Amino acid sequence: MPELRRDPIVGRWVIIATERAKRPSDVQRPLDHVPSGLCPFCPGQEDKTPHEVYAAGRPAAGPVDGPGWKVRVIPNRYPALMIEGDLEREANGIYDRMNGVGAHEVIVETADHTKDLAALSDAEVTEVLFAFKARILDLRNDQRFRYILLFKNHGQAAGATLEHAHSQLIALPVTPRQVQEEIEGARRHFDHRERCIFCDIVMQERKDRSRLVLENEEFVVFAPWAPRSPFETWVVPKRHESNFEAEPKERLAYCAQALRSTLRRLGAALGDPAYNFILHSNPLRDPASPSYHWHIEVMPALTHVAGFEWGSGFHINPVPPEEAAEFLRLVVT
């Protein structure tokens, strides 16, 4: 069973993922290209994966774990955390630990092996985002879980080990420290000014426009003021909402439009770079927050974390966000 261990100095939790040691990519170099006939995420290969927990697009008469789907969600075969068991929180002298209980799922974004997320239509990306929402709503019924992190690794440099377009979620028994720091910073701003800091940022970026990449009726896309890496880009709803899963499907369609355009611009500007995106939302057990605001952070994998970054927590970014945003604005997609 995996284990969660807490650093006693800074309060950071680490997953000791014993099950991941069985993953082939941990002991051999992953293939740059997996032929479609061998891909476990392709239609017709459903028996090569764990039983699905969600599927969209399949005709009502279609068999579970059969072809005909458009989006499919399955447990990760090599999970970082295990769904079975109790947390069993305990102390080991000065140290805190608990069992590595959680959920680790894969969202297969399309049945087409040749397409990545940016190549899908707005309607298809909407279905992917709706699958995110559906899984959060289901998993939050499990009282062991406090936070669900949704993320995507695209390209080998960003940590992807299979070519077929997919994203992942991990349900955690704790709120990640980085998210907690965002929540606390947003709360301090709200306590001082009685306004959401994300709403203030959206208003300023729409007014200033030097870091604005695009906007539609419901979402803005911009390069943040202090980006950690070149071409880091955020997708943020204009309306205040702390919980991603509270968004209706019609607004998710606008999010899909903004996210797809962002990925296409990054691909055209940078030559299909590897990237990660992370969805930050309000913790599952917290009430709707007037100070926190869900958002998606997209980070191309263009630089490497080295000694200075590990030692200081500082990030060195050679591209000013104003220049990155201007470059992306001028891209024709």
Beta-strand residue fraction: 15-25%
> Which whole number gives the mean pLDDT?
92
- Characterize the biggest β-sheet: 10 strands, antiparallel
Care to count the β-strands?
14
Summarize the structure in words:
- It comes from Anaeromyxobacter diazotrophicus.
- It is an enzyme of class 2 (transferase).
- One of its GO terms (biological process) is galactose metabolic process.
- One of its GO terms (molecular function) is UDP-glucose:hexose-1-phosphate uridylyltransferase activity.
- Keywords: Carbohydrate metabolism, Metal-binding, Nucleotidyltransferase, Transferase, Zinc.
- The chain has 333 residues and is of the alpha+beta class.
- It has two domains: 174 residues, HIT family, subunit A; 152 residues, HIT-like (HIT family, subunit A).
- It is 25% helix and 21% strand.
- It is built from six helices and 14 strands.
- The strands form two sheets. Strands 3-4-7-9-8-13-14-12-11-10 form a ten-stranded antiparallel sheet, sandwiched between helices.
- A hairpin with a 2-residue loop joins strand 5 and strand 6.
- Helix 1 crosses helix 4.
- The longest helix has 22 residues.
- The protein is globular.
- The protein starts with a strand and ends with a helix.
- 35% of the residues are buried.
Short structural description:
This protein is α+β, with helices and mostly antiparallel strands. The protein has helices at residues 122-139, 177-193, 197-208, 249-270, 307-312, 321-329; strands at residues 3-6, 13-16, 54-56, 71-75, 90-92, 95-99, 103-108, 147-154, 166-172, 212-215, 219-222, 233-237, 275-280, 295-300. The protein is built from six helices and 14 strands.
